[in-house]
Amino acid sequence: MLLRAVGLAKSYRGAGAEPIPVLRGVDLEVKAGEIAAIVGVSGSGKSTLLSVLGLLEPADGGEIWLDSERVSHLGRRAQARMRGARIGYVFQSFLLISRLTAWENVLLAARYVGRDRREAEQEALRLMERLDVLHRRGHYPAQLSGGEQQRVAFCRAVLNSPPLLLADEPAGNLDEDHARVILGEIRAQARERGTTVILVTHRAEAAAEADHVLRLQGGRLEPS
Ligand SMILES: Nc1ncnc2c1ncn2[C@@H]1O[C@H](COP(=O)(O)OP(=O)(O)OP(=O)(O)O)[C@@H](O)[C@H]1O
Ligand SMILES: [Mg+2]
How far does Cα 1 stand from its chain's mean position? Predict the structure, then answer.
């Protein structure tokens, strides 16, 4: 899926009355099957950019296009449908649902889009096996290590092979081996399924996988 952002702006209101600009005109274009890595210092707005691109937070200005549709200006319901059907998220804080087991968390996305249950379960088994969390499938998030939660959250995000995958430090808490598996999965999603990937990362080896490496600095994206 072609992702295009034009002039995205976003400010937050701090404790004072003055809004603090985080994004000041972000332009971005990523084609189907491409991986764009976004780097930048802590607080530069990387997570903010992903939530705006993922239609989780509205921008104050600018436009977001997915293929030939201007999704930034759709209504809330249409945006919610778009998120469920076409966007996969790996959040920096995982956001697993605490009262659901790892298995139930992974299968949540499939249920949402009404996918055949048998087929989704087969895929979930394969994915959790590859990510080395299948043996933890009956556990609740609080019973999992940080890295295990991260890998379960990753399985949930890619189970439906969404055309757009937004991943915020998806290997941030992981050792080399598990990080390599996640990066391999991301690469496979992009190359084999044509997934468009936006990857926030500090890992040099992750950036090395990317087709574009962009730095978020001063509220804008520039080639790194
Ligand atoms: N909901 C919010 N309300 C107010 N300010 C916010 C909010 N979310 C983020 N910010 C501010 O916006 C700026 C960018 O935050 P963001 O989380 O996007 O940075 P980041 O680049 O992802 O950082 P990190 O590498 O530490 O994850 C920060 O200064 C942060 O304090
Ligand atoms: Mg962040």
Answer: 14
